[in-house]
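yo

u said u wanted the structure for the complex thing, so here. seqs first:
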Amino acid sequence: MSDNRTAMLDKIADLAAEQAKAVDAGGKYIARHKERGKLTARERIELLVDEGSAFLELMPLAGWGSDFAVGASIVTGIGVVEGVECMIVANDPTVKGGALNPWSVKKSFRAAEIAERNGLPTVNLTESGGADLPTQKEIFIPGGRGFRDLTRSSARKVPTVSVVFGNSTAGGAYVPGMSDYVIMVKEQAKVFLAGPPLVKMATGEETDDESLGGAEMHSRVSGSSDFLAADEYDAIRLARRVVARLNWRKAGDTPLPTYADPDLDPEDLLDLIPQDLKEPFDPREAILRIVDGVSTLRQAQDGAGSTTGGGNEVAFDEFKPLYGSALCVGWARLHGHPIGILANARGVLMSEEAQKAAQFIQLANQKDTPLLFLHNTTGYMVGKDYEQGGIIKHGAQMINAVSNSQVPHLTVIMGASYGAGNYGMNGRAYDPRFLFTWPSAKSSVMGPAQLAGVLEIVARESAEKKGQVFDADGFKAIKEMVETQIEEQSLPYVLSGMVYDDGVIDPRDTRTVLGICLSVIHNQRVEGAMNFGVFRL
Ligand code: COA
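structre next:
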């Protein structure tokens, strides 16, 4: 087994352990919840989605490294319900009663953004204690956006469904309140602006949960519920019927009816990434293990009696291979969908690479083709010759193209993603539709050693200006500390915990994950831009 493989397998085992923390976040409250005869958030999702279909869980590590449980007390992801790709948002009532903390809010906003930009119906599986009261100041004001997003989705003709399994109090009452279709579980749902104690305090009225906000009352009296479910299973059955009747049609292109597995074995992706990211690797080795292959396609199609254009195809048609060779760009298909790919072939981006990227992104927009960015970059080249050669304006051309491109972008951070290279390669700030990282990824303003070195130079110059003697030995410890800190902060769990990505994935799952994303993207028509900012030439 190669050293790279051993190191990657260790990281994948680590990832599984961290993800398990999200599943077990409720601890002892999971058993109590089950004793109450209730299903967990993940069981509800599993019953909701079509049998045998995949659920693409998003942001499972949200809140990692914070004071809150990993997963941030909600489960979010894309699942297929009665053949319709839906954004599913399920409160985890076993974690602080499903109360929403600042990371839950950030995660649910990102889920709503994914639903909006890809035009996905949303199904909320609601059971929550509302705002996490100790951190209310961080969530109360921004949190209102969740209800706004639901009604704006409805206004865009993208339906929203809410299934209420339990508590949905105060602001939480507006989740069913703002949804197009509402199902409430008998003797479980509690939907009111204020519970009995608060009502007593506010008006002196004596009342009880059921008459104030029970499922029967809302289904028979207030009309805030459309369906009264006999139990949780019945509620999920009803939700599936609602989605089945949405008459949902995807507006985007359909993929090729047949497509082939990659020409090279995805298993080998584990050998690809050097443990020291300073060592380059050839991204074509990754691309050919992610995109549709041709050899098997030809066999499949020949078997079906059709021809494929004289056997001239290749899985990846590289564009401008002789120019700006530190960036590899080209066209391929993934799960039968056409895609343009930009991948760093050597860490650094120079003027030629930046201009090649800007041209390629415009070509993808001209032909309405989604783009995939594969990161392994240390950023744009620095130095006198490069500055005089216009590296800033060439990098700006690339960033202009990335920023104003209208075709959907997918980003996978395979290795390094440092400095403005993160921006030019469509990092999180550039709104990719989906962004995933490999366990080998590292991302920060610059590499840890470089950052610590810059700090040392600045400290030395500052001491000299003040006429002081620079304590080089004393600074060594600070430098080491900074290097360790930056190294830790650049790791994928930290960034995933802060919801800077949509998940850390096993490299071998990349093709499946991106295939689901491309299918999701095609819920809407893909239309490229032909208007970009002024290119500084
Ligand atoms: N903020 C912070 N923590 C909360 C919380 C909230 N809104 N709601 C519940 N919790 C905590 C509890 O303090 C308890 O913490 P602990 O394990 O450290 O003791 C844990 O979550 C479990 O709560 P518990 O009441 O035992 O769970 P339950 O399943 O029996 O009841 C609720 C869940 C949500 C019905 C109940 O906790 C409740 O009514 N919470 C307050 C709801 C509310 O008024 N929210 C304000 C909305 S703006």
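The pocket of coenzyme A is lined by residues 96-97, 99, 129-133, 167, 169-171 (CB under 6 Å). The two ends are 49 Å apart (CA to CA).
cya
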